[in-house]
Each structure stands twice: as C-alpha cells, then as structure tokens.
C-alpha cells in the first residue's frame, strides 16, 4: 500500500470554494474528467448536512505494460460521496474507484475547511489517498502502486490548477454581477430622487395655484357680499321710506 497526501490554501472564502466545487468539472486543465453525474442528493434534517453521491467518469491513456494486464480500456469510473456540514463549515469528499477494483483500490479523502490563519478569506484543502494493488507477484504490485501514485500526483496538481481557474472565473462573474447591481441600484436611486424632486415641485406648484385661487375666490366673495349688503341696505331704505309715507297717509286722513 502506498500513501499520498497534500495540502493547499485557496485564496477564497469557504462558501465560495464549496459552491465552486459543484461546477469544478469540466475545466480546461483537468481534461481527464469527462463527466460528473449526481446519483443522489439529500439533506439530513437531524444534522443539517448536505449529502451528495456522484459518479465521476475519467478518460486517460495508460502505459503499454499496464494495458497488457488490464486490457485496452482507457475509461474509468469513480464513486464519490460528499458531506457539507454548515455548522463546522467543512466539506468532506470520499471516493473510490469502481473500474479495475479487483486489481487496484484507491481510497481518496478531500477536505475543505476555513484556513486557520485567515478563516474569512482563505480555504485550506487537505487531500489524502491510500493506494493498494492486488497481484500475484509483489514486484507487479509495487510497479502498479508506484505508477498509480505518480499518476495520482499529476492529476492532483492539474486538479488544483483547474480549480483555481474555476474559482477565478466565478469570482469575476460575481464581481460583474455586483457591479451591475450597484449600477442599477444607483440609477434606481437617481430616478427615485428625480421623481421625488419633480413630485415636490408639482405639489408646490399646485399648492401655490390653489392658494392663489382661494385668495381670488375669497376676494370675489367679499366683493359680492359687500355688493349684496349695499343693495340690501338700499332696498331696506326704499321699503322704510315707503312704509313711512303709507303711515303718514293713513294717520293723516284720520
């Protein structure tokens, strides 16, 4: 059995890294991964953890000496089960090969956790693998294991570079999205302020005109009332004179 381990810090927060993990493949660097299919996904309501089972399809040439043992198959399948624990901010992925499992077993564990030095902005990636070959002769086992470790190391390095490119792309898209939101928000605020200012102007204009109309109506009402009062006084004066004349005539004949 051969062991492999590595550690790497991604300069992105844990939430961004775990989100990007689901769209990691395909990428222009890790071309050996040709397909990723989700077989099962569920949430454990007791723990709150997200559990995902995936089938990963890889296609990569193998050396001639190994081809003589396993045949000419270049396509292989890997089963992966991952858990996302939001309470501890930990993404753990465990995988094992399904192809050539009678000849070789590769158990891989990958863990993404917030960096201890900068947990809000960096994510530490831990990767380990146990590689065990099964063959009649120890020399063949050792050769298969040595080749597997070398191939695993090459793919792991490609995986980190490819994932960095995916993280950068998503970060750029997020930055563009945030700028668009800020631009739209700024324009929306400007329109609201413009509408608010125009509304205030209209209200003030209507208010001024209303006051002018009220003043005009009030003035005309006062004039009308004065005119009616004068005419009423005149009518009453005529009536009074008439009554006096009538009274004088009546009492005069007596």
Automatic annotation (TrEMBL):
It comes from the Eukaryota. Pfam families: PRELI. Residues 1-175 form the PRELI/MSF1 domain. Gene3D superfamilies: Helix hairpin bin. InterPro entries: PRELI/MSF1_dom, Slowmo/Ups. GO terms for cellular component: mitochondrial intermembrane space. This is BA75_03823T0. The gene is UPS2.
């Amino acid at each position: 059995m051969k062991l492999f381990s590595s550690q790497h810090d991604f300069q992105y927060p844990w939430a961004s890294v775990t989100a990007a993990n689901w769209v990691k493949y395909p990428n222009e660097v890790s071309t050996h991964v040709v397909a990723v299919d989700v077989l099962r996904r569920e949430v454990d309501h007791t723990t709150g953890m997200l559990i995902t089972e995936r089938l990963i399809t890889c296609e990569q040439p193998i050396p001639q000496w190994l081809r003589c043992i396993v045949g000419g198959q270049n396509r292989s399948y890997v089963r992966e089960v991952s858990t996302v624990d939001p309470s501890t901010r930990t993404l753990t992925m465990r995988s094992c090969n399904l192809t050539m499992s009678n000849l070789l077993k590769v158990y891989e564990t990958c863990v993404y956790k917030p960096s201890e030095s900068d947990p809000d902005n960096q994510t530490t990636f831990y990767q380990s693998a146990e590689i065990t070959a099964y063959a009649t002769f120890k020399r063949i086992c050792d050769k298969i294991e040595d080749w597997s470790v070398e191939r695993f190391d090459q793919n792991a390095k490609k995986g980190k570079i490819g994932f960095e490119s995916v993280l950068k792309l998503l970060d750029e898209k997020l930055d563009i999205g945030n700028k668009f939101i800020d631009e739209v928000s700024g324009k929306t605020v400007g329109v609201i302020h413009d509408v608010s200012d125009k509304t205030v102007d209209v209200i003030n204009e209507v208010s001024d005109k209303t006051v002018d109309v009220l003043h005009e109506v009030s003035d005309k009402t006062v004039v009308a009332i004065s005119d009616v009062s004068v005419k009423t006084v005149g009518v009453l004066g005529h009536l009074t004179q008439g009554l006096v004349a009538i009274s004088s005539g009546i009492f005069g004949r007596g």
